[in-house]
Write a structure and sequence with these properties.
By secondary structure, the chain is an alpha/beta fold. The protein has one domain: Dna Topoisomerase Vi A Subunit, Chain: A, domain 2, CATH 3.40.1360.10. Helices cover 34% and strands 21% of the residues. A five-stranded mixed sheet has the order 1-3-2-4-5, with helices on both faces. 33% of the residues are buried.
Length: 114
Amino acid sequence: MNKMMLVHCKGGAVHLNGSGKTLTISEGIENGLAVRQMLSTDRETLIAAMSATNLGNFKLPIEPATLIIAADDNQTGNAEALKLGQRAAGAGWRASTLFPPAPGDWNDYLRRGD
């Protein structure tokens, strides 16, 4: 299935859940909601970046905390997730990048029930 946005979303993000100090960010909404279901907690802030480029360029809050990056299973998504993680770590964040088991992304993994 092709996915297409009808407007530019550069710099955009969607707040999916929570307001805690731990920030979990995914590339897309479906993956973000899958990660939320798997984490089973409302103690973190969950954001969907809306694109791989937005993920890599996400503007982090000023005060460093814990960052969990839920990467997609593709070359661009992985590169942008690592870019964000490296930038966050350099700014004092405790950053972790989670890669989904192949094949697919976190939503595919959740639906398979592995």
